[in-house]
Amino acid sequence: MASSTTTRNKAAGPQDLEVRCAIVLETISSAAATSEAQSKNLKLVFVTGGPGSGKGTQCNKIVEHFGFEHLSAGELLRAEQNSDGEIGKMIKGLINEGKLVPSEMTVKLILNAMSKCSNNKILIDGFPRNDENREVWDRVAGLKPEFIIFITSSEEVMQNRLLSRNEGRDDDNLETIRKRFKLFNEQTLPVIKHYESIAAVQKVNLQNLNIWYTFGFPQLLNLYC
Ligand SMILES: Nc1ncnc2c1ncn2[C@@H]1O[C@H](COP(=O)(O)OP(=O)(O)O)[C@@H](O)[C@H]1O
Ligand SMILES: O=c1ccn([C@@H]2O[C@H](COP(=O)(O)OP(=O)(O)O)[C@@H](O)[C@H]2O)c(=O)[nH]1
């Protein structure tokens, strides 16, 4: 409990109290989306891995070959950062600092996006990133993933990929990349460890694989989804 509070304070800052309250209120209404989601026989797969490990790349291939819908938490947040007002500014600031956006906001965006999906097979890319993310997800969404894909690579390879991916992202600079790696090691790896005790985690090293890995996923996807 104490560690979630610390993470929460670090991510949001005291000036965001008003913003946080608004988010919590909106989150309650997205609980309605959750019960609808449950009745759709949803199959969720979480896709995790360090920044630049290739999560988005593999997700695009899985969508192409296995008919999943791809929801990237980072992309949903980047779309939201352009919204007017304090919330957009807050998200932009946190992403550019390599910090996490408050969990309520991310969960709300994922649930809203899920409620618009007609597909019942959904990849959730880049979430949850820390224990507090997972707690809020479990509390608000209450949906367990069928399994988790965990993509690994060395930091050197991931850093080179991020610095040359040319997507115009402000957070793909050396200083922020180092902060994102630190956050991944300190906060995301423990969440993956947690999932290893309650769900199947498929770990795939794509460091030397210059191609997509879809050929490795069919058994899993057929088995679980
Ligand atoms: N297996 C791979 N081999 C070489 N380059 C890759 C591989 N997977 C992804 N990339 C490249 O690395 C960069 C980061 O990949 P991306 O899928 O955006 O990572 P993430 O979503 O994990 O941040 C992109 O430019 C992508 O084209
Ligand atoms: O659940 C999430 C997912 C992403 N982010 C923010 O969005 C950034 C980019 O995440 P994304 O998954 O798009 O990229 P990656 O860092 O994996 O390359 C992260 O560094 C965080 O600042 C967040 O706060 N919560």
TrEMBL record:
InterPro entries: Adenylat/UMP-CMP_kin, Adenylat_kinase_CS, P-loop_NTPase, UMP_CMP_kinase. Its EC number is 2.7.4.3. Keywords: ATP-binding, Cytoplasm, Kinase, Nucleotide-binding, Nucleus, Pyrimidine biosynthesis, Transferase. Pfam families: ADK (PF00406). Signal peptide: none annotated. It is an enzyme of class 2 (transferase). PROSITE patterns: ADENYLATE_KINASE (PS00113). GO terms for molecular function: AMP kinase activity; ATP binding. GO terms for biological process: 'de novo' pyrimidine nucleobase biosynthetic process; pyrimidine nucleotide biosynthetic process. It catalyses: UMP + ATP = UDP + ADP. Belongs to the adenylate kinase family. HAMAP family: Adenylate_kinase_Adk. This is adenylate kinase. It comes from Physcomitrium patens.
